Amino acid sequence: MKIFILGSCVSKDSLDFGEPGEFHLVEFIARSSIASIFSEKPFDDVFSERLTSGFQRRWVNVDIEKKFLDIISRSDFDVLLMDFIDERFNLLEAGPGKCCTVSAEFKNTDPFKDIPDFKIIKSGSDDFFRRWGNGWNNLVDFLRKNDKLHKLRLNKVLWAARTASGGRYKKYLSEEIVPDEAIEFANNTLNKMYSFVEKDLKRDQFFTYDEIKGGDFHKWGPAPFHYADDFYQQMIGKMRTLAKELS
Q1: Which domain of life is it from (predicted)?
Q2: pLDDT one-digit tens code per residue, 85-123
Q3: Residue 24, domain extent
Q4: What is the CATH classification number for the domain harbouring 128?
């Protein structure tokens, strides 16, 4: 089964739990908010070349240069697998309707000194959600026109309040603990998004899960969206069921 992922490691890491050759990853686009994908190009990409990782360079470039629609139009896939975890990032507006995603990778390019005038739109704010909702509607329209909406499956996941052992999380590159209020805010934003998209998707297009716990020994380190192995095994089970339905 050929899979195109628009999302985060939440979706991609699950494929590691499949059998060799069981799933073919056609494309993986991360660190792009749906609000950013359907905005205007904010500026020329002079930033991605500052990153050493090829994956990170590509993600930042695809987001700034608005390449997603061209990539998906050229791709052959059975399933468009999505998750909204990367919607945790803020947006940067460099002019009316000209946005990019303020991902950790984008920030690592030290971009703000080179952008003369910009506005930060906080993830979860009313302004953010308005732009995100418009982006989602544009995505649905695009997929419908190209007869691909039925291929979409959405991982309906939330941030895990604790690891499987009951542990808490430290902020990225910090000793500071992620506060419960931040996890609650992120989950409220995600639940608002899930409610919004229900108008466009059928029930079987959502992948839902039992209670999700964070992984104590996740390969990327503990974080509210780095889950215990049970989650990834559940997801692979859902993907196998879907593969049988499509065969």
Answers
A1: Bacteria
A2: 999 999 999 999 999 999 999 999 999 999 999 999 999
A3: 2-246
A4: 3.40.50
